[in-house]
Write a structure and sequence with these properties.
The chain is mainly alpha-helical. The chain has a domain at 222-260 and 363-665: Glycosyltransferase (Alpha/alpha barrel), CATH 1.50.10. It contains 22 helices and 20 strands. Strand 6 (350-352) and strand 7 (357-359) form a beta hairpin. Helix 9 (263-275) runs parallel beside helix 22. The longest helix is centred in the N-terminal third of the chain and has 42 residues, at 52-93. Bound molecules: 1-deoxymannojirimycin. Its cofactor is Ca(2+).
């Protein structure tokens, strides 16, 4: 306790300041008064009681402290700020975890080189760094149109839902930010992209609208010109003999119908846009505007019409900004929805888009696993564009369900799933070819599309690739080519579909997005194999299926072809993977391999009167036995990937901005809100 009496008795001192606080003094005669006015008066009185020297010292001290404060704020603040940023950067780039690198840094980074430890695949050449980007925006002679947003596309799920469910929103945010682990590895979600939640608030603009920053156009080269010539030749056949129909029959100068929806024309729309074929694009647009009718009593395959028609319309909308394509995409999307009305919510394979009914194939109630798990990129994007969550909800449910199913073998899935029980059927057979292929592709691509936050997708993808390595990967003789075989009830078969050649591209895309560099090594080994599936054959074109020799035999190549498998349908998978490999490594050999393939397509499948044809026999150069059919994916995929492979412009469908659906239709990676 301080004493007022003792303070009063002290002799006045000049060289120090004494401040004595006493409740009694403070209370005084009037009792305790803590009013502001009283406190102000009391302080003033005390101040007045100080000597001039004391007051000067106090004022000087205050002034000194104020100057120090200002200096330290400006000089100390900056280092602290950069120190904080630096430690965050360190956290992002430090791998420290076997098996997985950290995800990309924020905001669409440049292609990154994966580690070039080729120990496991000795015959591979090291990766080269990608060339510095020479940039071109869109097709040389087309303008990116401003968006024509449809005023009817008003959101049904505005901010009100977020406000109504604050606790839920908070919970979700925490989940999104969480770090996931896969076999001890840690992956941070990409900070730059929007969460893939189906809480959709606003319909989105086409990606081309954000994409119009002016950059020097990159001139096209000889090989790209050759692709344009090939496309024009194919288009001429289609236009002359099959206009508005599904597929050209170039030899009989007629057409075949599958769904009766102008499949080739729609599949080819965005290829024309990318190749800069303005006239052809405008003609095709007119047909879409005036003649494309979905109100037809016709059964369509859900998967095929999703990847080719819905995917093609959505990507064309994004590239052109023309709302006609979004309107058509919405219509076909809605008409496909009855497929999901099944007891298990695993969709039926077929939908009657006129009647609004759906059914499985006549002989079974099963659907194909690849089909029900490779429609997600398109339906999710349709939800994002329209603000209508039902599309995404339906396909997300399928993925979530498949994620939980038993019957997988180290992440590898069977080929069939029952639409009643929701369970896998025909257990024990595992392939990366027909009926399972794009399941694996879409695990990775959905993860990329949604901003690398949907952990289950990534976990399933990583586990599956481990499953491939463990059960399906072998080496052939004599060249020791790494290939992906099949497993049937414990028995390995050295059979590989050409369809499997999507895998090197997908693995490379994963590595580019921060997954383990080991995937890139496997991609390099597999693309070599896919190339050999062309190079070791008499026409230089791959058959539909090959069998690899596991034991060296005199006079035998690595690749054996059975008579029933020696057809070529103008498929894209190898060229697709060559494109990814060139984009990510800059190694020109991939362009050269693609160039060889294009020349062989020209030599053995080109029909003089217009169009290209599938062939029956890749082993007979003097008579490859034309089949008289040009598949829509030749224009939708094969020639598009050729053109992109030969381009040195990484901004021509930038892989940090777009993800290709399984029919080569680029859809935007969801951008920050
Ligand atoms: C295309 O329709 C798609 O690429 C699909 O994923 C597989 N089959 C053909 C091309 O071969």
């Amino acid at each position: 306790m301080y004493s007022a009496a003792a303070a009063a008795a002290s002799p006045p001192r000049r060289d120090f300041i004494s401040v004595t606080l006493s409740p009694e003094e403070a209370v005084g005669a009037g009792g305790y008064n803590n009013s502001k006015a009283w406190r102000r008066r009391s302080c003033w009185r005390k101040w007045k009681q100080l000597s001039r020297l004391q007051r000067s010292v106090i004022l000087f001290l205050f002034a000194f402290l104020a100057v120090c404060g200002v200096i330290s704020y400006t000089s100390v603040g900056e280092p602290w700020k950069s120190l904080t940023n630096k430690s965050l950067d360190d956290q992002r780039t430090e791998p420290g975890i076997p098996g997985l690198k950290l995800a990309n840094p924020a905001v669409l980074p440049a292609p990154q080189k994966a580690d070039a430890n080729l120990g496991d695949y000795p015959e591979l050449s090291p990766q080269k760094l990608p060339k510095p980007p020479r940039v071109r925006r869109g097709p040389s002679n087309l303008q990116i149109k401003p968006p024509r947003r449809d005023v009817r596309l008003k959101t049904r799920h505005g901010t009100s839902r977020v406000v109504e469910e604050p606790v839920q929103a908070d919970k979700e945010e925490k989940t999104e930010k969480s770090v996931i682990s896969w076999r001890g590895a840690v992956i941070e979600p990409d900070q730059s992209t929007e969460p893939p939640s189906i809480k959709i608030k606003e319909p989105e603009k086409p990606s081309s609208v954000e994409d119009v920053d002016q950059k020097e156009p990159v001139p096209i080269n000889e090989r790209q010109r050759a692709v344009i010539e090939a496309f024009r030749h194919a288009w001429k056949g289609y236009k002359d003999f099959a206009w508005g129909h599904d597929e050209l029959k170039p030899l009989s100068k007629s057409y075949s119908e599958w769904f009766g929806l102008g499949l080739t024309l729609i599949d080819a729309l965005d290829t024309m846009w990318i190749l800069g074929l303005k006239e052809e694009f405008e003609e095709a647009r007119k047909w879409v505007a005036n003649d494309l009718v979905f109100d037809k009593n016709v059964d369509v395959n859900l998967f095929e019409s999703t990847i080719r028609i819905l995917g093609g319309l959505l990507s064309t909308y994004h590239l052109s900004g023309d709302s006609l394509f979004l309107e058509k995409a919405k219509e076909i999307g809605n008409r496909l929805m009855p497929a999901f009305k099944t007891p298990s919510k695993i969709p039926y394979s077929d939908v009657n888009i006129g009647r609004g009914t759906a059914h499985p194939p006549r002989w079974t109630s099963d659907s194909t696993v690849a089909e029900v798990t490779s429609i997600q990129l398109e339906f999710r994007e349709l939800s994002r564009l329209t603000g209508d969550e039902k599309f995404q909800k339906a396909v997300d449910e399928v993925m979530k369900h498949v994620h939980t199913l038993s019957g997988k073998n180290d992440g590898l899935v069977p080929m069939f799933i029952n639409t009643n029980s929701g369970q896998f059927t025909h257990l024990g057979v595992y392939t990366l070819g027909a009926r399972a292929d794009s399941y694996y592709e879409y695990l990775l691509k959905q993860w990329i599309q949604g901003g690398k936050k949907e952990n289950e997708l990534l976990e399933d993808y990583m586990r599956a690739i481990e499953g491939v390595k463990k059960h399906l990967l072998k080496r052939s003789q004599p060249k020791k080519l790494t290939f992906v075989g099949e497993l049937a009830h414990g028995h390995f078969s050295a059979k590989m579909d050409h369809l499997v050649c999507f895998l090197p591209g997908t693995l490379a895309l994963g590595a580019h997005n921060g997954l383990t560099a080991d995937h890139m090594k496997l991609a390099e080994a597999l693309i070599e194999t896919c190339y050999q599936m062309y190079a070791q054959v008499e026409t230089g074109l791959s058959p539909e299926i090959v069998h690899f020799n596991l034991h060296a035999q005199k006079g035998h190549k690595d690749v054996e072809i059975k008579p029933a498998d020696r057809h070529n349908l103008l498929r894209p998978e190898t060229v697709e993977s060559l494109f990814y490999m060139y984009r990510f490594t800059g190694d020109k050999k991939y362009q050269d391999w693609g160039w060889e393939i294009l020349q062989n397509f020209n030599k053995y499948t080109r029909v003089p009167t217009g169009g290209y044809t599938s062939i029956n026999n890749v082993q007979n150069p003097s008579n490859p036995e034309p089949r008289d059919k040009m598949e829509s994916f030749f224009l939708g995929e094969t020639l598009k990937y050729m053109y992109l492979l030969f381009s040195d412009d990484i901004d021509l469908i930038n892989l940090d901005k777009y993800v290709f659906n399984t029919e080569a239709h680029p859809l935007p990676i969801w951008a920050p809100a």
